[in-house]
C-alpha cells in the first residue's frame, strides 16, 4: 500500500502544517506566540522542536509538539546532513508530510536543508525538471504582491527550466493569489525580445510562441516593483541577488527616513504627521507580512521563512503553507504542467528535434 493521502490537499478545509521550530533564530517564545496566532485561525500545527521549551503549546486545540533536538544549521552541507540525520527537526517535519500526518511543511531554518528535506521526502511533480523557490514581493503600487521565481533553488538554469518556472509561478498565482489569468514576464536588461542573455532570449521566444500563458515579455529591473505582470521569472542566482538588493534597499531607505525625521524640530513634526501612512507602508513592506518563500514543483507544500521572523512572520509562514495546501496548489500545478505540454519529456523531445537541424558548431 502507498502512503495515505496528504491532509487537506485539494480541499477548502484548513490544512495541518508540520512546523520546524528549531529553525527559528529568536527562540521558543517567538515560536509559541506565532503558532498560537496561526492556531487561532483554525489551522492544525504539528510542531517539531524541544518539547520541554514548547510544552505550553500542547494546551492549544489542534496543536501537537513532537520532540526533536537535532537542528541542521546554515553552515552545513544540506544534502549530506538531510540524508545522514533522520532525527533532525526539518527531516522529521518533511517526513510527517510525506506520511500524510500533515498537509504542508513550514520552516524558518536553513533554506538548503528545507529544500533538500522537502525534495527527498515529497519528490517532484511528474514532469518537473527542477523545483524553484518563489517569493511574494510586497509592491506599494499593487493591491496584491508580486511573485518572483527562482530566488535561490537553482544558481544556473536552462531555457527549459525558465519555461517551467513560468508555468509553476502562474499556477501558484492562480491557486493561492486568486488571479484568474496571471501575466508572466521574464527579468531582463531590456524590454525587446532579443535583449538579454541567450538563456533569456531563447526562453522568451519559446514562451511567446507557445501561447499557453498570458506572457507579457521582458521586464527590466527598474520596473520590478511595478511591472506589467504578476509573475516575474529568472534564474536562481539573479533572483537571489535581486531579492537581497530589494531587502537591503528597503532597510537603508527606512533608516534614512527615520534619521531625517529625527534631525530637527520641523522634520520631527512632519514625521509625526506622516507616521500613520509610513507605518502602514512599513507593515506592507515587512518580509514577515508574506510569510516566506515557497518551493514550487515538488509534490507537496514547503514554505521557507525568515529565520529572524517574529511571531507575525511565524504565523504567516504557517498560514501560507496551510492556504497553499487547502486550495490544491499542487494538483493545479500538475494539471497546468500536463495541459501545457511543458513536462520534462516534452521539453527534452523539443530540444532534441531542435538540435537535429543545427550544425555541430551551433549545437
Structure description:
The chain is of the alpha/beta class. The protein has a domain at 1-128 and 297-329: Isopropylmalate Dehydrogenase, CATH 3.40.718. 44% of the residues lie in helices and 14% in strands. The protein contains eleven helices and eleven strands. It has an eleven-stranded mixed sheet with strand order 3-2-1-4-11-10-5-6-9-7-8, with helices on both faces. Helix 6 links the parallel strand 7 (183-187) and strand 8. The longest helix has 26 residues, at 236-261. The model is unreliable at 1-12 and 349-363 (pLDDT under 50).
In short:
With 363 residues, the chain is α/β, with parallel strands linked by helices. Helices cover 44% and strands 14% of the residues. The model is unreliable at 1-12 and 349-363 (pLDDT under 50).
Descriptive tags:
363 residues, alpha/beta, Isopropylmalate Dehydrogenase, eleven-stranded mixed sheet, 11 helices, 11 strands, globular, disordered N terminus
Amino acid at each position: 500500500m502507498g502512503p495515505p493521502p496528504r491532509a487537506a490537499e485539494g480541499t477548502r478545509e484548513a490544512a495541518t502544517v508540520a512546523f520546524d521550530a528549531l529553525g527559528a533564530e529568536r527562540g521558543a517564545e517567538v515560536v509559541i506566540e506565532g503558532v498560537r496566532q496561526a492556531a487561532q485561525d483554525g489551522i492544525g500545527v504539528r510542531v517539531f522542536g524541544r518539547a520541554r521549551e514548547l510544552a505550553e503549546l500542547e494546551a492549544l486545540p489542534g496543536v501537537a509538539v513532537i520532540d526533536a533536538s537535532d537542528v541542521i544549521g546554515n553552515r552545513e552541507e544540506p544534502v549530506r546532513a538531510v540524508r545522514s540525520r533522520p532525527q533532525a527537526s526539518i527531516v522529521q517535519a518533511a517526513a510527517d508530510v510525506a506520511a500524510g500526518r500533515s498537509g504542508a511543511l513550514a520552516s524558518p531554518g536553513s533554506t538548503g536543508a528545507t529544500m533538500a528535506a522537502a525534495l527527498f521526502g515529497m519528490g517532484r511533480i511528474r514532469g518537473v525538471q527542477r523545483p524553484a523557490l518563489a517569493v511574494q514581493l510586497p509592491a506599494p503600487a499593487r493591491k496584491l504582491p508580486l511573485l518572483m521565481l527562482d530566488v535561490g533553488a537553482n544558481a544556473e538554469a536552462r531555457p527549459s527550466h525558465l519555461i517551467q518556472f513560468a508555468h509553476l509561478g502562474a499556477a501558484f498565482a492562480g491557486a493561492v493569489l486568486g488571479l484568474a489569468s496571471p501575466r508572466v514576464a521574464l527579468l531582463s536588461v531590456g524590454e525587446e525580445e532579443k535583449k538579454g542573455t541567450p538563456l533569456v532570449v531563447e526562453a522568451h521566444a519559446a514562451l511567446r510562441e507557445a501561447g499557453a500563458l498570458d506572457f507579457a515579455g521582458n521586464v527590466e529591473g527598474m520596473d520590478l516593483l511595478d511591472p506589467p505582470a504578476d509573475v516575474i521569472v529568472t534564474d536562481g542566482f539573479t533572483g537571489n541577488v535581486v531579492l537581497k538588493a530589494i531587502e537591503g534597499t528597503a532597510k537603508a531607505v527606512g533608516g534614512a527616513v527615520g534619521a531625517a525625521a529625527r534631525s530637527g524640530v520641523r522634520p520631527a513634526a512632519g514625521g509625526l504627521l506622516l507616521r500613520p501612512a509610513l507605518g502602514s507602508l512599513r507593515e506592507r513592506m515587512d518580509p514577515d507580512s508574506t510569510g516566506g518563500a515557497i518551493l514550487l514543483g515538488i509534490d507537496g507544500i514547503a514554505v521557507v521563512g525568515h529565520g529572524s521572523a517574529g511571531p507575525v512572520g511565524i504565523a504567516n509562514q504557517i498560514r501560507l503553507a496551510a492556504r497553499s495546501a487547502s486550495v490544491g496548489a499542487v494538483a493545479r500545478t500538475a494539471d497546468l504542467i500536463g495541459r501545457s505540454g511543458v513536462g520534462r519529456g516534452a521539453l527534452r523531445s523539443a530540444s532534441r528535434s531542435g538540435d537535429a537541424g543545427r550544425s555541430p558548431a551551433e549545437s
